[in-house]
Design brief:
Elements lengths: L1 H11 L14 H8 L9 E4 L2 H10 L6 H8 L16 E4 L4 H20 L1
Parallel strand pairs: 1-2
Helix pairs in contact: 1-2
Length: 118
């Protein structure tokens, strides 16, 4: 099913547009996007410590306690995410405030756009 989902996703992306795809979890996701018509595809690996993720998601009411977060975080669908770190164009740390993260991400994206324009 993952291949089919990736084909559907790629079919929705228009050429020469900026698109952010959230939730890549499998090497097949990376391979599908890399081998598609999206020649400028770049994977940004967002690295956020589990404690920080739990605290943010807990504030949003997603998890009532750490054990429910841990159960979700260790679900089989989440097990291959770490393998994407090695194929990422950039690993972006997300261990500061969200405002600081957004500023750093905006700067990174501007740099990627400039490189793509040359």
């Amino acid at each position: 099913m993952q291949s089919e989902l990736n084909l559907r996703l790629i079919g929705e992306i228009k050429a020469d547009t900026d698109v952010a795809v959230d939730g890549l979890r499998h090497p097949l996701d990376f391979e599908s996007l890399t081998n598609s018509f999206l020649s400028s595809f770049q994977l940004l690996y967002i690295d956020s410590p589990p404690k920080e993720r739990f605290e943010r998601l807990n504030r949003l009411g997603r998890y009532v306690d750490l054990s429910s977060f841990d159960a979700s975080d260790s679900h089989p669908v989440e097990q291959q995410i770490e393998s994407l770190r090695g194929v990422a164009a950039v690993v972006v740390p997300n261990d500061r405030s969200l405002q600081d993260f957004y500023v750093a991400l905006d700067e990174l994206l501007q740099g990627i756009r400039k490189v793509g324009q040359t």
